[in-house]
What does this fold into?
Amino acid sequence: MTDPVLETRNLCKAFGALEASKDVSLTLHSGEIHALIGPNGAGKSTLIQQIAGGLRPDSGAVIFDGQDVTALNTAARARRGIGRTFQISSLATDYTVLQNVMLGALGRRGNIWRFLRSVMADTTLLAEAEQALEQVGLADSRAVRASELSHGQRRQLEVAVALTLKPKAFLMDEPMAGLGIEGSARMLSFLDALRHQAPILLIEHDMDAVFALADRISVLAYGQVIASGSVSEIRADPIVRAAYLGDEDAA
Amino acid sequence: MTRETLLNLALLALLLLIPLAAWALDEPFLITLTTRAVIFAIAGIGLNLALGFGGLVSLGHAVFFGIGGYTMGILASHAQSYTPLAEWPLLIEGTNSMPVIWIAAILFSALAALAIGALSLRTTGVYFIMITLAFGQMFYFFAISWPAYGGEDGLSIYVRNRFAGLNMMDPIQFFAICYALLLATLFLMSRLVRSPFGLALGAARQNTDRVQAVGQMPYRLFLTAFTISGAITGLAGALFADLNRFVSPTMFSWQTSGEIMVFVILGGVGRVYGPVAGAALFILLEHLLGGLSDYWHIYLGAILLGVVLFGRGGLYGMLTGRQVAHD
It folds into this structure.
């Protein structure tokens, strides 16, 4: 197998007596969707934070694109190609949809230190931004303020901003949350295709989506990976069923 | 033409026509009053970059206003007494050339803003307000206890500084210079907020997580904005000192910081022309209400309360509605 795009090696993180990550080792290979599931409080978001750079692990390492990025901050990791979407939509809400994606395109190129030229007249950036909006299906809402978007559209916009970064890996924290049936189905087929552009580490509560999308699943409980494997392996795993899926559903 | 553009033009026309009419009618006091408004507007535009566009509530912008003022005072007092400012390691003479003084004022206030910002921006929210206020007080008490340049009494400059070919003691000519600088500052600011830097700064104000996730450092954006902001307010300080031909520690006081903030809030936080409207209104109120009572600040306070409570977005918010997102 080729080297993973993203790898965590023995990540440990404790908040006082609470061990939020216990020796977590994961890999994300190109072309795959690796889903991370687990009950609330299992340490999924803490783990994502450590991968994205918002939290420093107590020990262990994050390897991205062949390099140890553990010491880098969020911005530096994003520039190297970690594209993240947030659990709770995190957009510039006073800005229009287009401005939000422009920000992504601008951030990737690192050309923010220009003070006098008009950013919205930069045709290269505009093309990249428009393309990302097309891809998620938000092109018609380009002039709408982000604060006026529906919940589902905000999730789409989050993904569009991540797309403009042209990342080498996506970290997606519950992209389907609150999307409704139709929205979920659209996002599902979108993510399905997206994995070929860059692999996705996906945190998701919607089990149907996870089982439909994931190439591999890792189950987190009390900060530890208690199981890891293909969809059928995870479905069949007795520990997982006891800890998470619920035995009564298994029949 | 949008309502906002109309209001901008009306405001600029008003600030130009009043002194011209006053000049024709031989009312120099009115010219000086308008010049004050123009200078305060520049100071407010400076603060607005930090406060309105960067979301940095600085209660210490008097530092930069004061540094601008003292730069003028110190350079001009040495020129006036024909004593060099420093002889070693190199000879630095005083000067009474306005452009040189402006550049020095911009440089020194930018340096101060860079240093103060580098420390203060490690904090946020109320701590940021407090630490900028604390820096302001430091400079204030330093100026009071610095006898070389007048200490508590301040410094008087007998003749206004020079600007090539113009007679700066003529109120209308000095007004013209200040007005031209206001236009230049407004031009710069309207370009800045539409630039890549402006887009990123505004995003950092709204959501620092978002900016980091696209690979940029909010701290650097804020620090750059704070430095430019301080430089512009410093330029206004130099002009203000020249207008009065007098510098005193009052320029460093926290009341001055508060007044600059009032210009911004009255006019419209985060609107390029907001501080111009705010400063003009402030001067108008100061003149009208000041004639009614020595305690006119009570009325100003009531008006400010009204603006904050009912007219979100200051004068510009009330007259033109919510800002149209630029595209």
